[in-house]
Design a protein that fits this description.
- The complex is a heterotrimer of chains A (154), B (330) and C (232).
- Chain A folds into two domains: 54 residues, no CATH class; 79 residues, RNA polymerase II/Efflux pump adaptor protein, barrel-sandwich hybrid domain (OB fold (Dihydrolipoamide Acetyltransferase, E2P)), CATH 2.40.50.100.
- Helices cover 14% and strands 28% of the residues of chain A.
- The termini of chain A are far apart.
- Helix content of chain B is 18%, strand content 25%.
- Chain B is globular and about 65 Å long.
- Chain C is an alpha+beta fold and 232 residues long.
- Chain C has two domains: 85 residues, Gyrase A, domain 2; 130 residues, Cyclophilin-like (Cyclophilin).
- Chain C is 20% helix and 31% strand.
- A seven-stranded mixed β-sheet of chain C has the order 7-6-13-5-12-9-10. A four-stranded antiparallel β-sheet of chain C has the order 1-2-4-3, with helices on one face.
- The chains are: A alpha+beta (154), B alpha+beta (330), C alpha+beta (232).
- Chains B and C meet through β13, β16, β20 and α5 of B and β1, β2, β3 and β4 of C.
- Chain B: Keywords: ATP-binding, Hydrolase, Nucleotide-binding.
- Chain B: This is Allophanate hydrolase.
- Chain B: InterPro entries: CT_A_B (IPR003778), Cyclophilin-like_dom_sf (IPR029000), PxpC (IPR052708).
- Chain B: One of its GO terms (molecular function) is hydrolase activity.
Chain lengths: 154, 330, 232
């Protein structure tokens, strides 16, 4: 388990304002392959946002073929690499924000990408109905990976 | 600039407080949940000492006069911006004319509205915190009222994501460090204080029973109800300085925990003092909820403080990283 | 050079017992002087306060009535070492007298704000004129500030007019009331609930949050009350 334990109080993230680190990260995000989820800082610190990175990488490395080209479906994509959450971590008892068949407004939050302690929203670009869920909660996803597909409202 | 459209009776401008003047009788005040305010300031890129609005009574509605970023932290108030729900512990951008509405939280007690640039009121004795008792600080030393227009300072440069972002709330991220007792009582760690041993067997009953936060509780202090405890002898107490978290026992035997607006001096026998790192949780405890006090040591408190500081540092660094990365992609 | 030793009677012994040191939370340490509630003990507290002010680990010092609350910047790793250091500081603390200012306060004794004067007469067996005379003839020292912004605890009240605090506070005592609480006297700085006993009224504003020096009184100041009017 490579994910850091916050309760130990040990901060394993180095100085993230370091330009070299930012550049590394940005490059990684642009490639969006999510193949470099461990970021080593110049001082030897490591940012790890992966659960069991090796195994997960294989899953997400199976790329496009897994996405059926349903012409009417439009993918809702992850804004950044991290762990997908289908609901807010403070409300585990609620159901997923976007279940299959649910109608959503444009801009609705369908889930979150967890990057360390930070949560980024995954938002529906247009109004529509949730088609296929492509990512399970807890999965490691890369930038631009489809989280789910949306179909136009009937 | 925002305009307060509706507010409950006890909402005030608060920052991290006005310490350093207890020696002239000035209460520190400050947010009841300084952790939530700290995270809110990080989310909108403010300096740590920026002031926000502590919302503890509802409804609370504000209208944004200008475009601006804001963050909501602390109690989950099921906030909506022009009717669109916002996640808790979240930063978002408002457009001119948009209305932010907070509803009564289902758990926890206080929400914090942080505005990019911070609430721009004149600091008094180094702080923008409202001192209701002293009648200074915040907005004219008073609670907020409908119609108040609140100016903000200059927002920091830097990219804030259009769709907003948030944090894993500390109750989740730090759940191993801040556990709940069985039955949901809040576990509050405390060090025995000066008159602890005077309570004899009643001291054990202080630690062993669950206390309920009575309705006569506010930012000044929490009066606890339970099985009364009494010292075995009456001692002459000379007035001395106190800090928030001190647990005093007046003659009736039901303890009072002093909070952010605590008097600077006290004279009742004190049985214990809450560790500083647990005060933010106490600040979120609701009237009617249950507390259990657990004896702690300095070393144990230090572990909790370290975990808390690490969470804040982690949020600060990761938020900056994420903002920079999103800016690079935008 | 000759060294002159003070007369033995003026030496504050350093063997008169240890201070009592207790915790309030993890960062605050309360140091309580052993012995009487008197000026010599308070002078030693002032000396201790002065000695601790410059310590880099100290965030705040709050002198009380023959006691001192020290608030550290951080939770110490070894609180027992802090306690030992504070005990040593107390042992070393010699009586100092603060070069305070002299403050004269004009008072209307009796009148609409002197709600508790009759009760004090009953308690003391003195007439109202005697109570007023004894109060305004006294010379008081500001022992410490606290409880409310700028409120000075004044020591030196004649024992004949000591009066215990009320068990049920007055709900709306006015700012400016001249009050007696136990063996101390003071002037209410805020309108609100107050457990002290009011015998008069002073117009002086004791606190201005916007002033460079917000509190009128400071520890060590000498205070006298001038009877401007007596309404009995």
């Amino acid at each position: 388990m490579a994910r850091r334990d916050r309760s130990t109080g040990r901060n394993t993230i180095g100085d993230l304002s370091d330009p070299a680190l930012i550049s590394t990260l940005t490059g990684w995000l642009e490639r969006s392959g999510a193949s470099a989820l461990e970021i080593t800082t110049p001082d030897g610190g490591v940012l790890k946002i992966a659960l069991d990175a090796g195994a997960r990488l294989e899953e997400i490395a199976e790329p496009a073929p897994a996405i059926p080209a349903r012409p009417e479906g439009r993918a809702v994509k992850a804004p950044m690499a991290g762990l997908f959450r289908d609901r807010h971590p403070a409300a585990p008892e609620t159901g997923p924000l976007a279940g299959e068949g649910r109608a959503l407004e444009a801009g609705a939050v369908v889930g979150f990408v967890e990057v360390g302690p930070v949560l980024l929203p995954v938002t529906a670009p247009d109004a529509g109905v949730v088609g296929e869920i492509r990512t399970r909660t807890g999965d490691l996803i890369g930038y631009g990976d489809p989280v789910l597909t949306m179909e136009p409202s009937p | 600039m925002i305009e307060i459209v509706a507010t409950g009776p006890l909402n005030t401008v608060q920052d991290l407080g006005r310490p350093g003047y207890r020696n002239i009788g000035v209460t520190a005040c400050g947010a009841m949940d300084t952790l939530a305010l700290t995270i809110g300031n990080i989310l909108v890129g403010n300096a740590p000492d920026a002031a926000g609005i502590e919302v503890q009574t509802f409804p609370f509605r504000v209208r944004f006069s200008d475009r601006g970023a804001f963050a909501l932290t602390g109690a989950d108030c099921r906030a909506t911006l022009d009717g669109v729900p916002l996640p808790p512990w979240w930063m978002a951008q408002a457009r001119p004319g948009q209305m932010l509405e907070l509803s009564p939280p289902l758990k926890d007690a206080r929400a914090y509205l942080s505005l990019a640039g911070g609430v721009d009121v004149a600091p008094v004795m180094g702080s923008r915190s409202t001192s209701l008792r002293g009648g200074f600080g915040g907005v004219d030393g008073r609670v907020l009222a409908a119609g108040d227009r609140i100016a903000t300072g200059a927002a920091a440069d830097g990219f804030l994501p259009k769709d907003g972002f948030g944090v894993v709330p500390p109750a989740v991220a730090l759940k191993d460090v801040f556990p709940l007792a069985e039955g949901g009582a809040l576990v509050i760690r405390a060090l025995p204080a000066g008159e602890h041993d005077l309570f004899g067997v009643d001291a054990e009953r202080f630690w062993s029973q669950q206390w309920k936060i009575s309705a006569r509780s506010d930012r000044t202090g929490y009066r606890l109800s339970g099985d009364p405890i009494h010292p075995t002898e009456v001692v002459e107490m000379r007035s001395h300085g106190v800090v928030p978290g001190v647990i005093q026992v007046p003659p009736a035997g039901e303890p009072i925990v002093q909070m952010s607006d605590a008097n600077t001096a006290g004279g009742y026998p004190k049985i214990a003092g809450v560790i500083e790192a647990d005060l933010w949780r106490l600040g979120q405890a609701r009237i009617g909820s249950l507390l259990r006090f657990v004896p702690a040591t300095h070393a144990e408190a230090k572990v909790v403080e370290t975990a808390l500081a690490a969470y804040i540092a982690d949020v600060r660094k990761t938020a900056r990283l994420v903002r920079q990365a999103l800016a690079a992609m935008a | 050079m000759s060294i002159r030793y003070a007369a033995p009677a003026a030496i504050v012994p350093d063997t008169d017992g240890q201070a009592r040191i207790s915790f309030i939370g993890t960062r605050a340490f309360l140091i309580e002087a052993p012995g009487a509630f008197d000026l010599p003990n308070q002078r030693r507290v002032w000396a201790l306060s002065h000695a601790l002010e410059t310590r880099p680990d100290v965030a705040e010092i709050v002198p009380g009535m023959t006691n001192l609350l020290v608030i550290l910047k951080e939770t110490p790793d070894m609180p027992e070492v802090v306690v030992r250091d504070l005990q040593e500081e107390w042992r070393r603390a010699r009586s100092v007298d603060l070069a305070g200012r002299e403050i004269e306060i004009a008072v209307t004794y009796g009148g609409e704000h002197a709600d508790d004067l009759p009760a004090l007469c009953d308690l003391s067996g003195l007439s109202d004129r005697e109570v007023v005379r004894i109060h305004h003839e006294g010379t008081y020292r500001v022992f410490a500030l606290g409880s409310a912004p700028g409120f000075g605890y004044l020591h030196g009240l004649d024992p004949r007019i000591h009066m215990p605090r009320k068990t049920v506070p007055s709900l709306h005592m006015a700012r400016g009331c001249v009050t007696i609480g136990g063996m101390q006297t003071g002037i209410a700085v805020l309108t609100g609930p107050n457990g002290w006993n009011s015998i008069g009224f002073a117009e002086l504003q004791m606190f201005d949050p916007l002033a460079a020096s917000p509190a009128v009184m400071a520890p060590g100041d000498t205070v006298r009350f001038r009877p401007e009017r007596i309404e009995l």
